[in-house]
Amino acid sequence: MVSVRSVFVALTILSMDLRISQARPHVTLNEQSIVDYHQQWMTQFSRVYKDESEKEMRLKVFKKNLKFIENFNNMGNQSYTLGVNEFTDWKTEEFLATHTGLRVNVTSLSELFNKTKPSRNWNMSDIDMEDESKDWRDEGAVTPVKYQGACPEFPTKQIRRNSLVGKQYTKLLGVLSDWGDEGLTKISGKNLLTLSEQQLIDCDIEKNGGCNGGEFEEAFKYIIKNGGVSLETEYPYQVKKESCRANARRAPHTQIRGFQMVPSHNERALLEAVRRQPVSVLIDARADSFGHYKGGVYAGLDCGTDVNHAVTIVGYGTMSGLNYWVLKNSWGESWGENGYMRIRRDVEWPQGMCGIAQVAAYPVF
Questions:
Q1: Are residues 49 and 143 both part of a single domain?
Q2: How far apart are the first and last CA of the chain?
Q3: Alpha carbon distance 30, 35 (integer Å)
Q4: Max alpha carbon distance in the chain (Å)?
Q5: Distance of alpha carbon 212 from alpha carbon 309, whole angstroms
Q6: CA pair distance 122, 291, nearest whole angstrom
Q7: Are residues 55 and 188 in the same domain?
Q8: Where is the signal peptide (predicted)?
């Protein structure tokens, strides 16, 4: 029989302040404490199931993911930890199908870079890769973390109350606030603006298919062709694709004359770019350890280099001898370090950790 004290201790460790953030190392949960923990987690994230059958199924998924988190954290001697978030009752394949899926042809992007007139000289011989740090959040050049939603509608309709309505559609390339143009607007001496990703979902339809993923460079091309993009307050996010508004062309707030691809397989070039502004990159987000990341410097051995998700590098630094990038994601603040990740920088393989050094770009004003 499970004692009241054992349940209380487990719940206290795992849900302090009702901010269920992570399974602590060396915590072993029994069956009843997991059930109670799941119920409290449901309250925290306003999770509602359609019936008891679905709840039972989701509890099994929750247990499986919790065990994965617990086993990893109990190993110790890792540079990062895993923890629960609002997606802990999702199967891996469900989450990847609804929160990733960018289409990218690395070869064609390399060809595009070769045709693009470089805006800077990529001579990195004078760059000191050691003891460097930069965080564009400290400069006020990074907008708040958002939750991109799911694409398509999640079959169990597990949506957060008061934040997502109707069908869940992915915001093209994650969210526009994950791109370099907002940060560069601030860096250029203007006020930090939150731009409209909905305009891109509705209007950038030639190659980017709304809920069908998107091609990295096409959205930048649309902004150039359109002469800018509206503010989010003028063209708010609707969580689904709608008709392109006629006035979208009459409210340009970010005008860019082109975009610059960062040389691939070159973290020195990437460092130079991030020293000057946030940079959009593509990564491989398929690893279970990536989805359950909670804190520290991520170095998942299960992370590949077949990129499928867009994030933004907003800084870099060093912790305990490990160089890292600071990534801004679009999966909400319950994921990672309040929506951010520190990920290994300067690894031995040229693609970078999770393929981060393969595809990177930023706008040129």
A1: no
A2: 67
A3: 9
A4: 71
A5: 13
A6: 34
A7: no
A8: 1-23
Amino acid (one-letter) located at 63: K
Global model pTM greater than 0.85:
no
* Residue 363 CB coordination number (10 Å): 23
**Closest by CA position to 149, among listed 204, 194, 108, 210:** 210
Q: What are the tens digits of pLDDT across the range 289-339?
A: 999 999 999 999 999 999 988 899 999 999 999 999 999 998 999 999 999
- Omega cis (within 30) before 236: no
Q: Are residues 134 and 15 in the same domain?
A: no
C-alpha to C-alpha distance for 318 and 100, rounded to whole angstroms: 28
3-class DSSP assignment, residue 254 = coil
Are residue 144 and residue 290 in the same domain, yes or no? yes
R_g over Cα of the chain: 21
Q: Give the whole-angstrom CA distance, residue 334 versus residue 66.
A: 15
Q: Is the peptide bond before 152 cis (omega within 30 degrees of 0)?
A: yes
Spatial separation of the C-alpha atoms in residues 234 and 251, rounded to whole Å = 8
| Count: domains in the chain | 2
Are 50 and 1 in contact by the 8 Å Cβ rule? The answer is no
> How far lies 49's CA from each of 52, 58, 90, 157, in Å?
7, 9, 13, 8
Residue 292: which domain range?
95-364
Question: What single-letter amino acid sits at 278?
Answer: P
**Amino acid residing at 345:** R
Write the CATH number for 227: 3.90.70.10
What was the pLDDT predicted at 34? 92
- The partner residues of 21 in beta bridges, in order of sequence, read none
Instruction: Look at residues 85, 136, 142 and name the one whose alpha carbon lies nearest to residue 336.
Output: 85
